[in-house]
Design goal:
Blueprint (H helix, E strand, L loop, with lengths): L12 E7 L10 H17 L3 E7 L3 E7 L7 H16 L11 H6 L10 E4 L3 H17 L14 H6 L24
Antiparallel strand pairs: 1-3, 1-4, 2-3
Helix pairs in contact: 1-2
Amino acid sequence: MPNYRRAYIAGGTYFITQVTYQRQPWLCSKITRTALRTAIETVRQQYPFSIDAFVLLPDHFHCIWTLPSGDSDYSTRLRLIKGYVTKQCGNHLDLPPVVSASRQKRGEQNLWQRRFWEHVIRDEDDFTQHCDYIHYNPVAHGLCQVPQQWEFSSLHRLIVEGMYTADWGMDGKGVEPLSWDGGE
């Protein structure tokens, strides 16, 4: 069994990818979007963090979170968010009921992939590269022609805030792929 090691840096900024179980495409449904938004708001009350970038796709999401100084526990935040969504949506989604023996033993349902991808953002260039990756991801997956067409993205907010130009990514060239396997 692999020895998974995660980087925990207090006050760090983290790129996170969470995938649905067997890549079932349920994340963009209205019930799920509502539950996910409420879960994030609820968790942020007890465990604050800022969301620097976010994109929601049918079978996974990417985000960049910055934690408060002195705090490095992004794993608890993600676990609580996933648990909340599972409780709110699990019985309302039309997902295959098959759950492996391993998942049954752990009391897991069939909504989320067990593990998630995390990467510590190291500097401004790394931050920019991951933000661009997040916001261009719907185009890369063939869900839209230009990033601005994808509704479930922080790109719209970041354009308003002046961090991106209104025509960013419309040239069709895309962005450079990241040099890691982000769970896709």
